[in-house]
Amino acid sequence: MRRRTALTVVSAAIGGAVVPLSFASASAAAEGRRGPQSPTARWDFDERGGTVAREAVSGSADPIDYVFEDARYKPDTDPVRRRGVRGRALYFDGYSTVVTAKGPGKLDPAQGLTVDAWIAPYAYEHGIDGKPQALVNQHNPDAKTGFLLGLRRFGQIVFQLGFGTDLIEVKGAQDRPASKGRWTHVAASYDPAAHQLRLYRDGRLIGTAPTPDKAPHLAPGEPLLIGRHNRPTLLNGEFHANMYMGLMDSLVIRQGTLDDTTAQREHAERVAALPGHRVPRPDLTLNRARYDGDRHRPQFHMLPPWHWMNEPHAPVYFKGKYHIFYQHDPLGPFWGQIHWGHAVSTDMVHWRDMPIALAPAGDSVGPDGIWSGSAYVDGDRGPVLFFTGGDDRLPYRQRTGMAVSSYKTDRDTDLPTWTMKSEPVTEAPAGLPAGPGTAWAENFRDPFVWEEDGVWYQLVGSGIVDYDGTRVTKKHGGTALVYTARRPEGPWTYRGPLHWNDLAKVPEPGEVWELPVLLPLPGPKGNRSGKHILLVSPWWEAFSPDAVKHTYYWIGTFDKGAFRFVPDHEKPREFDFGEHFTGPSGFVTPDGRSVLFSITQDRRSEQQHAQSGWAHNAGMPVSVSLRQDGTLGVEPIEEAAGLRGRRLVKIRQASVKEADRQLVGVSGDMLDIEAVIEPRDATTVTLAVRASADGSERTLLSYDTSKHRFSSDRGRSSLDPDVRKGVHGGRVELVGGQLRLRVLLDRSMLEAYVNGTNSLTSRVYPTRRDATGLRLTSEGGSARVVSLDVWRMNGAYDTSVAPAAYDPPRPTNVGALPNHDFATGDLTGWTVVSGTTFGDANVTTRTDWGWGGPFYQAETADDPAGHHLWGYNPNAGGDDATGVLRSATVVLGGDGVVDLLVSGGNDLDRLYAAVVRADDGKVLAKETGRGAEQYRRVVFDLSEHIGERIYVEVVDKATGGWGHINVDDVNVPVQRS
């Protein structure tokens, strides 16, 4: 057999290109080679339920890890399964589903190796850390051993095989990916005789690569993982990247080698054996039933079927239907791989999920992310989308792009299919003049586009800075840059900044404006007022405690001739009194209303997102208008009433005490509440929602007549110490001596609208099943209820609403570890065993670490200030300091379950918090940080040690970067003496 003596192509691909002369045809080298033999391992994924995948050759039951096997906020459920190519298939959710197997069976790779599977991807990963999405792997990339079959960016099929000194990768042709939304058969083969790796897609050769003249090395010390990389990148201290999302069927590992003829024949035989001799269409629908019973997931607000969303944007009306798009990571409940999700409605409150509208693509304006934007109807061709395209290859990686639907050809008013234009719409060159400086070219995003009198206008969020040629020397403030054109495709002409905030005088809107929105304000009767509202979300380059918490606005006049906004007031006003309403987008409805959509941030930790499987949701759309007194009017859209079900109570002309008595039998976690109350001489009027019978959990909506202040008090909203709490509010004047209140309650969502002038958006996460009650109280005087109505609310989607599920209560007849939450503000109850890293100065109430984000320490009724132990003390050696801290010794009682918050460096041997048996010093359980300062709760089931003397030890023996450990809220059930 011929052997190549000179080969410079390390990895090559076939498909749409001339094959290099250095390629050796697989069939040309077939002589003397053994073809594929019987499988050494095979997973058919035909199980209809359960948490194992059966390996057919050995008969072993390989465990499937899946987030909801032991669910935190809902009933336990099995991994998702669907119809496969034949039989069943396993759905990998992109961040939690993984099969852990013993190995590839009796495999001698020196005799050839073939790995193949049917896959139907739902989404592609970005290629985090340059690693593939692993379909199946058992490899050690550091030792250059083992194998991996997977997908690189945009679905490019790859196979890696280790030879000890080399880890050889063959890449499939980029124009022959494993396409989303269809079944693809992928096969990788190692030919020891030809010293070659080969890749096949649906029986056709798509790539080859040469291998060393020696046998491959397997990695028997590594687990064989299906769906997750052997060395995944850890994101945010919580999420494993490099995981597969989609269906998989019939994964086979065989000894022997595929050649071109055999690959084509085998594929033809597979298809011929299928019903109708055709490959079926995969069912990749993201079924919302996955979250049935989630106690916190909203039911009548818009949110994606799975995983992560941020701001909804690009609302548009076309041919009787409203469309909304949203920032979306389909691969998990975390930020990254930004797509545009899409939903459609006939009334803005009942929604249907549509296919993903826009996804990062290699030949697009946004290969590294499709970020926020807007939509507007362009005559007969329908809506056009304007988006922010992320491209990390560029010096300024943000620019705006455009996409069009297929409506002109398919006439489908659901607009399920969109195509991105290959050229950008607008870009920010260096030195673009903007008011007192130049536009901050590195921050150029979130186009807001509309057409008026034949002119297309585009606002792009940015900032104004001074450059010295290499760096920013001064930040003036945020702005929205104005462009105009005669048609959506352009050319677009730059017109300067619409308006800007002087950071020295008006810092609230931030250094950069995100998501600028400019809408006309209808008058009190829906007539034109001549005024506009300009809304922005503030952004700061460094961490700010106010980041992504507020939306600011001005009322003023849009001067179309000068392309400038002239505000009626210099200081911007806060749109919502809470800290959850952010990311505004808006449009004008066919009947002339100006309507805003928003994201309601859930303020949960990364661990809570991972455990729940979803993150964030949209707020209820609101109508904005100009009131008679020149102030802003804010109301939920009138269509929200269409979600109402049965009226639970109707109260008219009653005292507060009598109204409260009638509310005793009224409860719910999905309610619409309308009330008109006359406080009269009362000092406060308070509506309690999500209230438990004993009052241990409740959220208070109060009006203080002396301070003219409406507020939400979440101090006792949840017994969960990991839930964010606090008090938020603002000034509201009574109207005619009356308080008019509208409250929308949707599981964890709480939206209150007061007197048609202000809103307060918040989140509450009760732990008790009975925390569904309502109470109405007042203090001082004789407040009177003019009217009070409560309706049960129906869901926003065409699925039944499952009741919320709650965990049984833990034992309460136990004591607690002394100073378990460091609420004393020092180390009382704890002993420094050795070293200098731990001291009273380490106990802090800081909510952030100054360079990146919040700790998310515990917040309880006993310690609302949130004391915690931060292991980093710059005045005591910082990361280089070491030491050991020990709690009091107690007898373990209750259910024997210990839990605590841990963060900091990731080193289980030298940096950890442990539960230790006092009698012999044996470590019963321990946990380290994960290279992140944000706390995560760890749970140790030590029930077999009930009655033993134990203590908690915090150990720091690590130096250098991340050489510290943080601890808070150490909960040990202590046996009472």
TrEMBL record:
Q: Please provide the Gene Ontology terms (biological process) for this protein.
A: carbohydrate metabolic process
Q: Which UniProt keywords apply?
A: Disulfide bond, Glycosidase, Hydrolase, Signal
Does Hydrolase appear among the keywords?
yes
MF annotations from Gene Ontology: beta-fructofuranosidase activity
- Which Enzyme Commission numbers does its entry carry? 3.2.1.26
Signal peptide from the UniProt entry: 1-28
InterPro entries for this protein: ConA-like_dom_sf (IPR013320), GH32_Enzymes (IPR051214), Glyco_hydro_32 (IPR001362), Glyco_hydro_32_C (IPR013189), Glyco_hydro_32_N (IPR013148), Glyco_hydro_beta-prop_sf (IPR023296), LamG-like (IPR006558)
What family does this chain come from, according to its entry? Belongs to the glycosyl hydrolase 32 family.
PANTHER family assigned to the protein according to its UniProt record, in alphabetical order: BETA-FRUCTOSIDASE
Q: What is this protein called?
A: beta-fructofuranosidase
**Organism for this UniProt entry:** Streptomyces paradoxus
